[in-house]
Amino acid sequence: MTTREVTWTEASARRLRRQGLVTPTQDSPARITAAMLGAHAQVLSAAELSVALRLDGGATRTSVREALWTEHSLVKTYGPRGTVHLLAAEDMPMWTGALSAIPAGSNPMPPHVRMTDEQTEQVLAAIGDALTGAELTVDELTEAIVERTGPWAGDPVMEAFQDKWPRWRQATHLAAHRGLLAFAPNRGRKATCTSPGVTPMDGPAALEALLEHYLRAYGPASPAHFAKWLAAPRAWATGLFASSAAGGRIEEVVFAGERAWVAAGDTEFADEAPRGVRLLPYFDAFTIASQPRELLFPGAARERALAGGQAGNFPVVLVDGEVHGVWHQKRSGKRIAVTVEPVGKALERARTRRDLQRQVERVGEVLEGTAELTVGTVTVGPHA
Asked: Which residue has the higher pLDDT, 161 or 174?
């Protein structure tokens, strides 16, 4: 049996197409978010732009907000890498089952801050009880946890943003990963939490499902790529790939000259080159997950658009499936000033300039304003 060889061009074209970055899709915000494997939402406006740019039919940031807060087809919670994401509600059993099954690293907290395993379980039970049918601010949740556990849970011992957080907050990510906690709409300027009402899938089954979803979205990929995307141990990811391959759930290909894997049977790649210009915001899923980085960020783009090797810290200009610039937007009322800084000569072609202008106009539509393009130097530094 001959191992299928996949080129970077083939892989990039398929990834873009499946994520609505070639032709915007008529899917719902939840369905395209599922196809992306979540939208990074540490900056919620960036997540709204990530999702809506992939949708047809006049979708805007309001479309995403309605899916999140009104329809509840999206959930804002802690996702891969422990960072805030929008995830499809229908995928939450998979996400919670998988994320809670990933091996935990060593506890980074100083000994005097750490909780014992027993204390952690007490806190998790208290969170689940307090948030059922409720929307609580962090302060209100702290009070509820202390009432159910003891004053030790509320001790302000965690160093955070020149402040001291209560001890229990070191369990926040774990609570989210177990399906006990998610974000609710802000109350004024205060974030609130609630229970997403999720029953996690069995861990091994959830991990197999997540791996298949990941490979369909971003394959071909290696265990190292998967581990980096999840911030998980590489040796653990290698073992997961090996067991999935032995079970016939994934299959090996040669990708960009290296061993990689795709979901079983998912070996069709169209003979087409990626085309078009896309403005991807901070921490866009495609920018974060697409590997290898040296092909996504060719030449000088690697130096300009990767902050210390970290993808996502700059909004990027994608030209024919590769990063060829960075951009920034500044809003003043309905006016949105978009500055695009090219890297290399890809944006000098007449076709790409026309595509860029259309994409800038689409950004304005999504953000419910009027965008104006300036080609020049982006002076804003990377997002922390």
From this structure: 174
Asked if pLDDT for residue 270 goes beyond 90, the answer is no
Amino acid in position 170: Q
Amino acid in the structure at residue 71? E
The b/e string for 19-53 (b: 16+ C-beta within 10 A; e otherwise) is: bbbbebbebbbbbbbbbbbbbbbeebebbbbbbbb
Whole-number Å distance between alpha carbons of 43 and 181: 19
Asked whether the predicted pLDDT for residue 310 surpasses 90, the reply is no
Q: Supply φ then ψ for residue 125, to 5 degrees.
A: -65, -40
Question: From its phi and psi, is residue 350 left (phi > 0), alpha (psi between -120 and 50) or beta?
Answer: alpha
Per-residue confidence (pLDDT) for residue 216, from 0 to 100: 98
**CA angle 351-356-358, nearest 5°?**
100
Distance CA 118, CA 335 (A): 54
* Residue 108: pLDDT band with limits 50, 70, 90: confident
Band (384; pLDDT cuts 50, 70, 90): low
- How far is it, in rounded angstroms, from Cα 44 to Cα 78? 13
pLDDT in tens, 178-201: 999 999 999 999 999 999 999 999
What would the 3-class secondary structure string for the chain be? CCCCEECHHHHHHHHHHHCCCCCCECCCHHHHHHHHCCEECCCHHHHHHHHHHCECCCCCHHHHHHHHHHCCCEEEEECHHHCEEEEEHHHHHHHHHHHCCCCCCCCCCCCCCCCCHHHHHHHHHHHHHHHCCCCEEHHHHHHHHHHHCCHHHHCEEEEECCEEEEHHHHHHHHHHHCCCCEEEEEECCEEEEECCCCCCCCHHHHHHHHHHHHHHHHCCECHHHHHHHHCCCHHHHHHHHHHHHHCCCEEEEEECCEEEEEECCCCCCCCCCCCCEEEECCCCHHHHHCCCHHHHCCCHHHHHHCECCECCCCCEEEECCEEEEEEEEEEECCEEEEEEEECCCHHHCHHHHHHHHHHHHHHHHHCCCEEEEEECCCCCCCCC
Determine if the peptide bond prior to 196 is cis (ω within 30°).
no
